[in-house]
Amino acid sequence: MRIPLVYTLRHLWNRRTATAIHLLVVVGVVTMLTLVLSLARGLDHTLVDAGDPRVLVVKSKRARAEAASAIPLTALGPLASLPHLARHPDGTPVMSPECTGYVAVLPRGRQGAERTNIAVRGLEWRQVRRMIPGIRIVNGRLFEQGRRELIVGRAASRWFEGLAPRDRVMIGSGIGDRFEIVGVFAISGQDGDTGSVRESELWGDYVMIMDSYRRPFLNSVRLRVADDAGPQDVQSIMETIATGSDVDARREPEVFGEYSRHAREIRFAAAVLGVLMGAGAVFAIANTLFAAASGRLREIGVLRAIGFSSTAVLAAFLVEALLLSGTGGILGCLLAAQFNGIQKALLSQTSMTAVVYEMRVTPALLAGSFLLSLLLGALGGLAPAVRAARMHVVDAIRGIPW
Question: Is the pLDDT of residue 38 over 60?
Fold first, then answer.
C-alpha cells in the first residue's frame, strides 16, 4: 500500500521554514552552476562553433596569433594554383588575403574602465562573402576598395564606444591614419543564430590596412576548399602548403579553438564548483530530512502499524526529497534563463584582443541542471529514507530517537 502524496505535501507545508531553506539551497546550486556553464557555452559558440571546417587559415608556423604572422605577397600565386579549392564563376579561387592589427577602444557605459584592444582585419569582401554565407550589412553600407573606410561587427558596436557609423578611428603604425566607419555587419548561421567571433572585429580593404600599418606582407590567407573535396584532398592541401615553407594551414575551427582556453578554464571551475556546492547541497538536504524524520517518529510508527510497508515509507521520503529538489531545480533554471543573451567581453590570451560573447543558457544546459537537482535530492534523501524505513514499529511509536 502506497502512502498518499497529499500526506507528503501537507507535511512540507507544515514545516515551511525547513522547506524554504531546502529550496534556497537547491536554487542556489542550480543557478550558479548553470550560469558558469553558460559562460563556457557562450565562448565555445563564439570561438569554436563559428569556424568553418572547409576554410583553411594559412599563417606562419611559429606565429601563435595572426597579427604575429608574416606571409609574402609572392605566396598568393602558388596558393591560388592549389587543387580542390572552391572557385568563383570566373575561375578565380575563393581566397582571402588578410592583414591584421588592433585598435584600443573603451567599453560602452563603464566609467573608469581601461582601453582594450579589438582586432582590425583587412580583407577582400568578394572573397569573404563566399566563405561566410551568413554575413550581411545590417546598418549603413559596405566599405569601398581603395578608401579608408571600415565596417564594424555588431557585437563590437554594441559593447564599445566610438564604433558606430560615421565615427572615425585611428589605425596604423605611429600616429596612424583616420578611417571612417560606414557600416555594421552581422553573421548568422543556418539556424539564424548569431554571435561569431568575427563580430568583435573591424573590417576594411586589406590594401589600405596594409598601407596604414606600413607592412609589405600579409598576416594570413584564408582558403575555401571545394564542397566536393574529401578529407584526403583537404589533408593533401595542408601538406602541400606546409612542405618546404615557413607557413602551414589549419582548419578554421582549430585556429579559433586556440583562443578558447578561457572556456576550458571556466568548465574546470564549474566542475570544482559543482562538486563543492553539490556536496554541500546533499548534506543540507540529508540534514533537513533527518531532522524532519526525527520529529515524525510516532507518525512513522503509526503508518507502519496500520499496514504501510517499509518500502512505502522509503518511497514517501524519497518522493519528498525529489519534490523539494525538483521544485528548486525548476526555480533555479527559470532564474538562470533570465541571463541568457547577456553580453560579456574577455581578452584573448592568444590574440591579445577583446572578444565579445553572449551567455548561452541552452535547453540542453537547463535540462542537465534540472537532472542534477533531482540527483542531489535523491542522494540527500536516500540515507534518511532508508533510516526511517528500517525503524522498528514499537520504537517508532514510543518516539525512541534513532
Answer: yes
Based on its alpha-carbon atoms, the radius of gyration of the chain, rounded to whole angstroms, reads: 30
Q: Which positions ≥6 away from 179 have C-beta within 8 Å?
A: 148, 149, 150, 168, 169, 170, 171, 204, 208, 212
Least confident of 186-200, 225-239, 374-388: 186-200
Predicted local distance difference test score (pLDDT) of residue 153: 93
Q: In whole angstroms, give the CA distance from residue 344 to residue 110.
A: 13
Contact (CB, 8 A) for 122 and 179:
no
Bridge partner residues of 179 (DSSP): 169
Grade residue 217 by pLDDT with cuts at 50, 70 and 90.
very high
Phi, psi at 115, each rounded to 5°: -70, 145
Pairing verdict, β 149-153 and 177-187: parallel
Q: 246: how many CB neighbours lie within 10 A of its CB? A: 15
Closest residue by Cα to residue 319 from 26, 16, 7, 13: 7
**DSSP single-letter state for residue 102:** E
Burial 201-217 (b: 16+ CB within 10 A, else e): bbbbbbebbbbbbebee
Roughly what angle, to the nearest 10 degrees, separates helices 16-47 and 5-14?
Answer: 100
The strand pairing partners of 177, in sequence order, are 171
Question: Which stretch, 220-234, 242-256, 316-330, has highest mean pLDDT?
Answer: 220-234
Helix, strand, coil % over all residues of the chain, rounded to 5: 50, 20, 30
How many degrees, rounded to 5, is the angle at CA 148 between CA 144 and CA 152?
Answer: 75
Task: Count, in order, helices (H) and strands (E) of the chain.
Answer: 13, 14
Q: Can you give the pTM of this predicted structure?
A: 0.76
Q: Which residues lie across from 217 on neighbouring strands?
A: 72
| Beta-carbon contacts of residue 195 (< 8 Å; ≥ 6 apart) | 42, 45, 46, 50, 155, 357, 358, 360
Distances 83 to 78, 163, 225, 236, 330 between C-alpha atoms, Å: 10, 40, 9, 9, 54
Cβ atoms of 30 and 332 within 8 Å: the answer is yes
Cβ count within 10 A of residue 337: 17
The Cα–Cα gap between 65 and 219 comes to 9
Q: How many CB atoms lie within 10 A of CB 360?
A: 22
The helix or strand, by DSSP H or E, that contains position 5, with its residue range, turns out to be helix 5-14
Distance of alpha carbon 84 from alpha carbon 234, whole angstroms: 8
Cell representation of residue 241? 602548403
